[in-house]
Every structure is written in C-alpha cells, then in structure tokens.
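Researcher: Structure prediction, please.
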Amino acid sequence: MIKNMEEISNQKIEEDLTRWVDKIYPSKEDFKKALKLNKKLTIYFGIDPTAPHLHLGHSTNFFLLRKFQEMGHKIILLIGDFTAQIGDPTGRLKTRRALTKKEVLENCKNYKKQIGKILDFKSKKNPAELKFNSQWLNRLMPEEIIRLAAKFTLGQMIKRNMFQERLKKKKEIYLHEFLYPLFQAYDSVALDVDVEIGGSDQTFNMLRGRELMKIYREKEKFVITTPLLINPKTGRKLMSKTESFIGLDFSPNEMFGKIMALPDEVLIDCFKLCTEVPLKEIKEIERDLKERKVNPRDLKVRLAREIVNIYHGKKKAINAQEEFERIFKEKKLPKIIPEIEIKEKTLNILDLLVKTKLASSKSAAKRLILQKGVKIDRKIESDWKRVIEIKKGLVIQVGKRKFVRLT
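Model: Predicted structure follows.
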C-alpha cells in the first residue's frame, strides 16, 4: 500500500532527496511528480560482488532505498553475479581481473545479512527482494546479444572518461569491457523497473539502462545517483582499500576503531551519508566544528557510536566505546584477546607473526617490525632476527588494534 503523498510532508521528501541524492535524471521535479501519483514504483540498486564486505559508502544507497520502502514502493537488491565475472571498467585505468562463478557466490553469501541491517527483507507488507542477474543474462542467445549491442555505437562507449584516459596513457581496452554497460542496462529491462539508484560513478551505465527502457519498454526510467564518500584532501574514494575501508560486517570494536581513525575533514559527510542523525542537528555540528566549539575527537566518538548502533545495536556500541577508551586512552590491554596455541618452544619473530596470522608473510612481518608496529608484552620490538621464547600468556600486538595471546 503506497502512502498518500499528503501523509508525507513535502519538506521531508525534499530533505531525503537532498541528503542522499546527487542528481536525478531526467529531473528532480519530474520524479517528485511521479511520486505524487501514488503509484507503486519498482526501484532497484545493483551491486557486483567483487569483495565479501559491503562498506559504509554503500550505505548511502540503502538509507535512500529504505525511505522509498517505507513509502510502500517495491525495492529490489540486484546481485550482479553475471556482470561481476565480466568486471565493471568504471574508473579503471586497467582491466579488472576476471572472477570465477565460485568466487562471486562466495563474496555475496553474507550480503543479505549486511544489507538487512537497514532494509527490511522480512516485512509481511512490503519486503525488499533479492535477485541475481544471471537469471536472465545467462539465457541471452548470441543473436540477442548482437541485437542488444546494435542499440549503441562505439562512439558512445569510447567517450567514457576512463577509456579516454586509457587511450592517452596508451593502455589497452578489451572488447568485453564495452559489453559491461550493455548487460547492466539490460537488467533494467529484465526487471521492468521505474527507478535505478546507484553511486554517481555509475551514471554512464545507469543512463544506458534508461535508453534501453525507452527502446524495449517504451517507458521512462528515472536514474538517481547518490554521492560518493570522498576524502577532500586526497580526492580519492574514502572506502577504497588504500583509504579508510570500513565494512558493514566488521566487529563492533573494529568498526568503532576504524571510524575513530577517519580524517577530520570527512566527519560531516559521514554524519550526513552514513547515519540518520537529523540534518538540522548535523548543520549545528558543522557550525560548531568550524567555530572550534567542539573537539573533532568527541564528534568521532559520537559518529562511531551512531554507526556501530545501526549495525550491532546500542549495547555493543557502548561496549565498543568503552573498549576503545580502555586501549587508547587508558593504555590498557583489551578485555578479550584471541588466544592461539603454539606448540614450539621457540620461534623466530617473523615465523611467529605469520603463524599467529598477525602478518600475511615473513616480508610483511619484517616490514611491520621495521615500522615499529609490533609489540611483545607491551614493548616495541625492533629486531626482526630475534628468537622468541614461547610462554603461556605472552601478548603480541600488531598496529593499534590487533592482539593475540599465546596459550
């Protein structure tokens, strides 16, 4: 049942379409008119399972989708298990490594659980749906793929910024990379959607879907792009592997600690895009921050508590804060430290770090020691050749948040 638009204030709709939205195609005004028709819209968000963790950058889309779900619209989460095997060229200066079907399915096995912290898949009235695009893309025959490819020109594809960058740098562009936007565009046709939501970096792919909907379904498809979490100083995506990656399924303590490590300049965007703290309050926080009435560290504590609460609940958020302060403020060991049994009596420190999985390899272990990132019983270890006497209760620390106790 679609809620009558009169029941939802225009101010509230405008706030949601401003907070979590970058652009709307063809226009915000046209989309608001469609909402006022009180017709149940089919709205989808697609994601390729290229990694097992969804991150805070994805949550912007989920918060917006939840608003539409609460209005009564049909929400579809589309897992690109077929397209992930091709590899999205968006923003890539080199071709993605092709994933196997097994890798793709392994990556997405916990996606529903992660997304379910925000979207409601169990609602009796209007549950969000989960679909896989291999259901229709695997069935496309060669002649159908040729007809699909005939809807676009090489000129349209080659104009993409990342392809132009590759040409300038004399890097290869492979034919299958041109197929990716075609298949993503066909998802809209197969689902017969009214709206597609995605990050602003997906604009090109989503607009191809809008064109196909006009050709195949003779209907308009609204495209809503959401803002990306960007570090204004580096210009890079905040949740990339080289930046401050925070997975939605990280433990409460790890999530809290990672948020506390975020740079000050991204605080306001994280409040706005990754929480549901009222915009009015966020504006007050922003003003106080500019006028230096508040310590950025205190704001990070608030942000971390808000986010951990969303994914793990209030009690675990409070416990995570207490544990963080215990380790970093009071300089104490964590209350709970993972224990590992080591049978050897002595071990070279590099072997010990690898065996306890605190380092991925001996070379990585050596690098950590040289960077003064390893502590043995609270003391910094600087000798990578040292042989460690294994004894019960020995605590090894790597970085600020990784601890292991030997049994």
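Model: The chain has three domains: 5-226, 252-329, 339-406.
Researcher: Thanks, that helps.
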